[in-house]
């Protein structure tokens, strides 16, 4: 039996809520290695879009309109 098998068998006896919490912790630990280039690219894109909205260059829609349009499109694809 491998070390992973031993750990897995021990953890599977935990209550579902505890296993879910552990799963979340493990998944978050995988996401910690964030690529600095990707992070910087997203920050620049956010700033660019914010500038467009504040300057009036971007055409925006209210959340109500966007949701209504999305729901209409989803009904057409069924």
The helix content, as a percent range, equals: over 70%
Instruction: Give the DSSP E fraction (strand runs of 2 or more residues).
Output: under 5%
Strand count, sense and closure of the main sheet?
none
What is the overall silhouette? Answer: elongated
Rg from Cα: 22 Å
Number of H- or I-type helical stretches? 4
Task: Provide the low-confidence segments as ranges.
Answer: none
Look at the structure and give the mean pLDDT: 90
Count the E strands.
Answer: 0
By secondary-structure content and strand pairing, the structural class works out as mainly alpha
Task: Tell me what you see in this structure.
With 78 residues, the protein is mostly helical. The chain has a domain of 42 residues. The longest helix is centred in the middle third of the chain and has 20 residues. The radius of gyration is 22 Å and the shape is elongated. The model has no long low-confidence stretch (mean pLDDT 90).
List the helices and strands and how they pair.
Elements: H1 3-11, H2 16-31, H3 36-55, H4 63-77
Structure summarized in a few sentences:
The protein has 4 helices and no strands. With 78 residues, it is mainly α. The mean pLDDT is 90.
What tags apply to this protein structure?
single chain, mainly alpha, 0% strand, elongated
